[in-house]
Specification:
alpha+beta; Double Stranded RNA Binding Domain; Alpha-Beta Plaits; 3 domains; six-stranded mixed β-sheet; five-stranded mixed β-sheet
Length: 365
Amino acid sequence: MSKSTICGLLLSLLPVMAMGAEVKGLYEAEMQVPDQTRSERGLAMSAALAEVVTKVSGRRDARLQPKVAQAIRRPAQLLQQYRYRALPEDQQGELIPGDDPQQVYFHFDKKAVDRLLRDSGLPVWGATRPAVLAWLAVEEGGRRYLLGADSPDVLRQLVAREAKRRGLSLLLPLLDLQDQRQVSFADVWGHFRDPVLQASQRYRPEAVLMGRLLRTVGGEWLAEWWIVEGKDSERWRANGVLPAEVLEEGMAGAVSWLAQRYAPLEGSSEAGHLWVTVDAVRSLADFARVEGYLRSLQQVVHVRVRQLQAGRVDFGLALQGSPEGVAQTIALGRLLIPAASGNELAGSGTATILPTDRQHYLLRH
């Protein structure tokens, strides 16, 4: 079976798949070190913890909070494990003759990191995060092109690397015939919203990120970024000597904007409460699926059953966070559908914001 056929089959499943994605490796980071000395490992460990608290909180300034800054200076207290490995082959060209750099992998304790963030008044953003589709138009050395999922391009590797470092669930378009019929380089370069969003529907993202990257005659990189989710959007710019600099700013800006919506700062450390009613619970197995899912949510501290009826269960959730944030996370998941749109399994491509402390869902079968 050809690669294009496989991609087509996968895309045909998208309308019935869940929106949102599980982001892996939030409590992990890899750093390059020149050797295995204790001093170099300590410096790398501090940098890794700084990256982790940024990913988990979604806040660029998380590392500047006093308690977090103190922990970064003594990162071993939160460390679970570390190990060394050889530098990947795609980075071997960066070596200076005589050097022997390698990667060191760090894994930090989830409970300890979460507690540190909450004690610092910062949010803990769970692994279920909005999927972001990125349309990137690049002009470099007289060449103009769109960056796709299969582009044999260093920029594509940098995009994937920066998205991973920031905990961003990012995908690039296939740029197959269907995409080419719907959207052009000029559409993305000009930030023409309608054709880009129309072409994005097949991928069912929660948000669409558009980027315009230009390499000037002098070698500097300039970028303009625009992220859109539903009726809301945000624009920002970046510049740098290296493409990684403007891509980092693009990914960081997208994460910061999404975190404000899905992992807002709490005004109080007290737990919130959310009442959840779920319909179409037809069996004990259904009940177990729903209860287990609610308990698995990052912001949920405790789940209790308030009432059982024919096909309906009422749950009371004690939260470490706001009802709005939990409702946003549920809207990204594959199990529960907001009752108001229960017949629209594909949704509109964006997560539904449910701003009250009483929510009503249908169990997806």
